[in-house]
Amino acid sequence: MAEQDFAEKTAIVTGAASGIGAAIAAELAARGATVIASDMDADGLDRVVAQIAAAGGTAHARVADVSQAPAMEALVKFAEDKGGALHLAVNNAGIGGPSVPCGDYPPEGWRQVLSVNLDGVFYGMRYQIPAMKAAGGGSIVNVSSILGSVGFQGASAYVAAKHGVNGLTKVAAMEHAPDRIRVNAVGPAFIDTPLLSRNLSREVMDGLAALHPAGRLGTSEEVSGLVCFLLSDRASFITGSYHLVDGGYTAQ
Ligand code: NAP
Fold first, then answer.
1. Domain containing 114: what range?
2. Which key words are in the record (predicted)?
3. In this structure, which residue's CA is closest to atom 45 in ligand 1?
4. Which of 130, 135, 246, 251 has the greatest number of C-beta atoms within 10 Å?
């Protein structure tokens, strides 16, 4: 049985139906949180919530599109209704987008990636922060990427959005430290989730693995461990910063 250090806490996780978000939802619930698992994939959410319940945890599903401000406002209200208050949030939902050079990048693909990966994080925090102020404080983790600090060819929109997430994280942290709200970002390298496996062949995945000094892709659980540390009171003096979980990728 995991330490129940998130007992009495209510936590929103976006993109919780799959990959990294599903692992974060499971760890938060195992550590005692009431988890509000949100995603656009209703069936995936039902599976994640059922797995959490089977393991003895508490989770509620809420279908919401992070790129729509009213949906994010309603998600926070749902969390307050289910949990009494909002204490923790992980803005994790994200998409990869087209893989083409900047000079050929489709404008509609740019807009879609920015609307999910950057607008979605802003809309999340826009409504989470007032709720956390009402709760007396809180902790937010935004899931960025190694591509929040370095470039990657063919991924201009994704790289721009993730750099934006890191900047937004710093400003929100500075502005809301007096409200006892901490805001941090994490930067995973390539993680073995459906985001990759849905779109890439095994051969390409192996090629990506070889880019890491660790010689492999990361796991969702390895990202979740860092996210949950940053959410926890053990990280009480950590705010406004960006934390890598990258198998040495950006050390090169
Ligand atoms: P994933 O397995 O594809 O999971 C992402 C989830 O977000 C999916 O369930 C997806 O639903 C959902 N989603 C997509 N658009 C949404 C929207 N507008 N509103 C709400 N939910 C939405 O991806 P992952 O690898 O776990 O990625 C999670 C986060 O980690 C993303 O922010 C990603 O950029 C970041 N990240 C991933 C990696 C990696 O290598 N995997 C590396 C660095 C950072 P659908 O399946 O229906 O689209």
1. 10-243
2. Oxidoreductase
3. 41
4. 246
Domain count of the fold of the chain? 1
Q: Checking DSSP bridges between strand 58-63 and strand 181-188, what pairing results, if any?
A: unpaired
Instruction: Identify whether 158 is a catalytic site residue.
Output: yes
Q: Are 86 and 64 in contact (CB under 8 A)?
A: no
Q: What CATH number corresponds to the domain at position 207?
A: 3.40.50.720
Which tens digits make up the pLDDT trace of 237-248? 999 999 999 999
Contact criterion met (CB below 8 Å) for 224 and 246: no
Q: Ligand 1: residues within 6 Å at CB?
A: 14-15, 17-21, 39-41, 44, 65-67, 92-95, 116, 120, 143, 145, 188, 190-191, 193-196
pTM above 0.90, yes or no: yes
User: Distance (Å, rounded) from C-alpha 219 to C-alpha 225?
Assistant: 10
Taking 80 as the threshold, does the pLDDT of residue 230 lie above it? Answer: yes
Residue 5 lies in a domain: no
